[in-house]
Amino acid sequence: MNNDIFPCLWYDGEAKESADFYCTVFDGKITADTPVVMNIELFGQKLMLLNGGPHFTKNASVSFMVICDTEAEVQKYWDQLLDGGMALMPLDSYSWSKKYGWVKDKYGVSWQIFLGEKASEQKIIPTLMFIHENNGKAMKAMQLYTSIFPNSKIGNILKYGEGSEGHPIPEPAENIQHAHFEINGYDFFCMDNSYDHPFDFNEGISMVVMTDDQEQTDKYWDSLTSNGGRESMCGWLKDPFGFSWQIVPKKLIQLMSDPDQAKAQKVVQAMMKMQKISIAELENAYNS
Length: 288
What we know:
The protein is 26% helix and 35% strand. It is of the alpha+beta class. It has 2 domains: 5-192, Roll (2,3-Dihydroxybiphenyl 1,2-Dioxygenase, domain 1), CATH 3.10.180.10; 212-287, 2,3-Dihydroxybiphenyl 1,2-Dioxygenase, domain 1. β3 and β4 (45-51) form a beta hairpin. α6 (261-272) runs antiparallel to α7 (279-287). InterPro entries: Glyas_Bleomycin-R_OHBP_Dase (IPR029068), PhnB-like (IPR028973).
């Protein structure tokens, strides 16, 4: 499984508590424990939890589909995630799954718990909801993402015109009710939705992409920020749909983790001044 691509969840101080909670619910493990960054592994998949402060709150424009093998498994996750949280769609039998529910947990993270077949060994699948001015652009987004990253493809697509009934708001027939795509071997789902939700994509949930070198860093950065995307600080950017990515050279993590605290700190200081990360400038700071 590709752990060079993974989600990052933004917290205001409760990343550690949340990491413990998810590791309990999903029988995972904590792989990095620092005051700012917690890394956890659930079903062999990496998730990063970032204590970034009060600036952003997570919302259901990005949710996590958990594909389960048995009804008992669905029930087990549902009961724990609902504790202190709220149901967005009740746990029930639907046309697409015998047992399915959508829940927002006590930390503001949304989960779709689903009894069904896995397309790959990836059990937790980030699901992007294209709403407001992005509604109708899910197909365009999949085409963009799969054109940028290697080992990428668009999988099954279900359009509203072909889909199940029961939508409170009529959706355009050509819009995507549910689709699967892969970037560099990492699975995503996406959908269009014309409901006027009180939220949209923000930095509360982003995707981290670890890069091997400057060439790869430049390619991903330039491709995602062009045509209406925008650069932010410290390797963060927004793509043309307003979805946030962090393009992070592996070298940055290596230099920041140096046992020589003074050198590591110089690297962090240099990184804080950058938009796109320059490996050469990080190395200069490290050696200065």
